TrEMBL record:
It is an enzyme of class 7 (translocase). Part of the ABC transporter complex PotABCD involved in spermidine/putrescine import. Responsible for energy coupling to the transport system. Transmembrane segments: none annotated. Residues 6-236 form the ABC transporter domain. The gene is potA. GO terms for molecular function: ATP binding. This is Spermidine/putrescine import ATP-binding protein PotA. Pfam families: ABC_tran, TOBE_2. Keywords: ATP-binding, Cell membrane, Membrane, Nucleotide-binding, Translocase, Transport. Its EC number is 7.6.2.11. It comes from the Bacteria. InterPro entries: AAA+_ATPase, ABC_SmlMolc_Importer, ABC_transporter-like_ATP-bd, ABC_transporter-like_CS, Mo/tungstate-bd_C_term_dom, P-loop_NTPase, PotA-like, PotA_ATP-bd. It comes from Clostridium brassicae.
Length: 347
């Protein structure tokens, strides 16, 4: 059984009478890469700040290795933070930036030197000790900010959208490097982002948040393939979401037809949402299609075409490596395992 390092118990946070976090309960395991994912204003950064000791919860408790740490200040926690704005000291060289926290702790000079060199090797900037901050690229500055946080040997590293200022190519490279770094160090990373691809690429566990509440917790595969509600389905990649009726276990009706599926446990004739990912729809001849529609448009996306199809009063998005001619009728085929059933959200 994997051991938890952090537990959030009934955490709520109010600002000027507005609830920004609502009864958050969460267990975070040792040595995992956990991502808080959601749109702006969903509460993910507030959650991170409460973990780091920069905010206190209005109600609830934060446990670290089984002990409540609500009143322990940030600098006394075994948790360090890397922010999107790296906050490096421009008047200090790289060595002094990384070693700043160790000097505050009055650590012996030899130990400081050993730790800084080890961190520079880890972030692939060995030999940069005497360079100025201004001489570094954005990606290099980000590595130094991470090295400065890790040199204190925290048990948990918090990262608040640290790749947001980087260009797309560098961001993708750093996603891989961060995951490798976390695995090499064997410490817990808690990462905040609104970027679905980042979350899916790096995480062991994803927490999807919206309006101060947790919508779903799961592996990247679970979150993508089995969204719990329409918000998760729409936020994590593109989805076709269609009204349907669950006739019985393994049988669903939508588009005025019955389809076999692999879901069960719903009430008979329960109104549900059907989620089908664009890449799971197969284009076939009209006489072989389970559903028929007319191609309205297509856009080349590099690795696939995004095809918009009109079927009665419904619009479908299809991702396919082959193009489809605008104005032509096509057939659409969907396998049972690619039909995902979700309960409708009330309210």
């Amino acid at each position: 059984m994997e051991e938890n390092i952090i537990k959030l118990e009934s955490i709520s946070k109010e600002y000027h009478g507005a609830n920004v976090l609502k009864n958050i309960n969460l267990n975070i395991r040792k040595n995992e890469f956990l991502t808080l994912l959601g749109p702006s204003g969903c509460g993910k950064t507030t959650t991170l700040r409460i973990l780091g000791g920069f905010e206190e919860p209005t109600t609830g408790n934060v446990y670290f290795e089984g002990k409540v740490i609500n009143n322990i200040p940030a600098y006394k926690r075994q948790i360090n933070t890397v922010f999107q704005k790296y906050a490096l000291f421009p008047h200090m060289n790289i060595f002094d930036n990384i070693s700043f926290g160790l000097k505050i702790k009055k650590m012996p000079k030899d130990e400081i030197k050993t730790r800084v060199k080890r961190m520079l090797r880890l972030v692939d900037l060995e030999g940069y000790e005497n360079r100025s901050v201004d001489s570094l690229s954005g990606g290099q500055q980000q590595r130094i900010a991470i090295a400065r946080a890790l040199v204190n040997e925290p048990k948990v590293l918090l990262l608040d959208e640290p790749l947001g200022a980087l260009d797309l190519k560098l961001r993708k490279e750093m996603q891989i490097e961060l995951k490798e770094m976390q695995q090499q160090l064997g410490i817990t990373f808690i990462y905040v982002t609104h970027d679905q691809e980042e979350a899916l690429t790096m995480s062991d566990t994803i927490i999807v948040m919206d309006k101060g509440e947790i919508q779903q917790i799961g592996t990247p595969e679970d979150i993508y393939n089995e969204p719990k509600n329409a918000f998760v389905a729409k936020f994590i990649g593109e989805s076709n979401i269609i009204d349907g009726i669950m006739k019985e276990d393994f049988l669903v009706e939508f588009c005025e037809k019955d389809f076999k599926c692999i879901d069960k446990g719903f009430d008979k004739n329960e109104n549900i949402d059907v989620v089908i990912r664009p890449e799971d729809i197969k284009i076939v001849d009209t006489d072989k299609g389970m559903i028929k529609g007319v191609v309205e448009s297509q856009t080349f996306k590099g690795v696939h075409y995004e095809i918009l199809v009109k079927e009665n009063d419904r619009s479908w998005i299809i991702h396919n490596t082959l193009s489809a001619e605008v104005g032509y009728e096509i057939g659409m085929d969907i396998y049972p395992q690619d039909i995902h059933i979700m309960k409708k959200v009330r309210g």
